[in-house]
Amino acid sequence: MYEKSKGAEEKQRTAGELSTQYISKIKMPSSYTEVIDKLQTKFKQGVTKPLDYRTQQLKALYRLCKENEDVLVKAMRDDLNKPYFESVICEIEFVRNDIRGMLINLEKWAQQEYTSKHILLTFDSSYIQREPYGVVLIIGTWNYPIQMTLSPLVGAIAAGNAAVVKPSEISPATARVLEELLPLYLDKDCYKVINGGVVETTELLKEKFDYIFYTGCSSVGKIIRDAANEHLTPCTLELGGKSPLFLDNEVDIEVACRRILWGKFINSGQTCVAPDYILCTEERQEEFIQVAKTILKEFFGENPHNSGDLARIVNKKHFKRLHKLMASGSVAIGGVCVEEELYISPTVLINVKASDTVMQEEIFGPILPIVPIADVDEAIRFINDRDKPLCLYVFSNNKNVVKQFLNNTSSGSCCVNDTVVHLSVDSLPFGGVGGSGMGRYHGKFSFDTFSHKKAVLIRNFIPLLEKLGALRYPPYTDKNMEKLLVLMKKRSNFFPKISYYTLVFLLGIITAVVVRLTFVASGLTKYLPHPFQ
Ligand code: NAD
């Protein structure tokens, strides 16, 4: 079904139109070199490194998110008609929580991490020192325009870097708000927002950055990597792809269905980890459709078009792309499209084949195809025949089935019996593998991503140990080589692990023995308490 909107006067200004208007107003500097040079100078002066400074900037970013919640919510409504609930929970509060976590752990994570070493270096120190890379470039995407730009920025600031943030031009209202707000809260000399589209980003990528963090589609990911290679710049690529969902026959269908539909239709399916398609048996497909009809009514009412809880498609280009995908399989639920409002109703397609158009690209919209399969083995083969997904979802109560998927497939993450919520566990790394990306972030992983791990070894000048170490110097002898080989050989548990309390106990005994021997040697035993004489 392809409905026209009732009145032209109701027509929303689409993000696509906003985008074109906005980009045409951006004045591109003849070169970004001057901007980056200034940031480099500040970084080299050490401005961004002290923990106090990082804490202060993180707190300022927190205030930005708190004091401007309304402005940010409005911008995301303009760009995507994002519901208030989703703007707060999935974007603004997500970033605030990220900052809280960083502030709680910053001192601990920034500390030196002592490491083990071989016997010859027993009295020396070896540790990992995390140091900021320098000036980093963060390129964000439009679907979660606050989370995808500010969450990496939290990691960059916490690790002590200066940064350039390049929001997506496809979400122009949010891009503009970020450009206006960031300089009001953060140190303007160390953090810059640069707006623009492909032309500006291409120009920006000619500059030498110390790290590039990119979120977006795989085809542009390759362009970013090529540009990074030019300067040997390390990069993280947070990409997308098709995230499959396996639905077992035994699982509670009502709970499973509710969790699947929620994960699929938040932000109208424009979520990188949204379940892209379902693999299940034909009987499960039928049951799923029956239950899904009831649950979608529960979520969005009789007519989802009137619901305030459904975002719109970001622009006409994506709307048209999605509309074409509906020709695959047959529409069991939804299928309503209103171009003027960029509205597509929550849609479920059944009996979809692997060769159908909808299975050839990441859907990134409110369309959920079901591909019937015979069993677990076929599902695993289906997944392994394609690019490694950003996320794999498995709905099953059978531990063996879950194990089969975990052991026989590869994906950035795997969430069992739910969708999307694994992103809220920031003790887990978030990122892709193979076609779905490289690198990871969230929580400590963000801090580590933006930190170079410098190896440090500090040696001593103890004469006795120098004698032992002198085995390495010429003139080389077989005897010295043999000794060195023994001393350097890796051994498991060479030093038995003992608890703190055992160590204190042993030290207590040693001290008592040493004290007694000293008294005995000095002939002062009579001064010792009776039991020790
Ligand atoms: P997009 O069009 O907003 O592009 C992303 C960024 O790349 C933008 O800042 C844009 O200016 C820049 N860009 C676009 N074309 C460019 C070019 N030719 N040269 C240089 N820069 C260019 O977003 P998109 O690519 O449509 O994003 C959607 C994709 O992002 C989906 O595949 C989705 O799965 C993925 N995604 C991944 C994550 C993740 O965390 N892994 C999160 C969100 C989205």
UniProtKB/TrEMBL annotation:
Has UniProt tagged this entry with the keyword Transmembrane helix?
yes
**What positions constitute the catalytic site?**
238
Q: Which SUPFAM superfamilies match?
A: ALDH-like
| PROSITE patterns assigned to the protein according to its UniProt record, in alphabetical order | ALDEHYDE_DEHYDR_CYS, ALDEHYDE_DEHYDR_GLU
Q: Which UniProt keywords apply?
A: Membrane, Oxidoreductase, Transmembrane, Transmembrane helix
- Check the record and name the InterPro entries matching this protein: Ald_DH/histidinol_DH (IPR016161), Ald_DH_C (IPR016163), Ald_DH_CS_CYS (IPR016160), Ald_DH_CS_GLU (IPR029510), Ald_DH_N (IPR016162), Aldehyde_DH_dom (IPR015590), Aldehyde_DH_NAD(P) (IPR012394)
Q: Where are the transmembrane segments?
A: 498-519
Q: Which domain of life is it from?
A: Eukaryota
The protein's name in its UniProt record? Aldehyde dehydrogenase
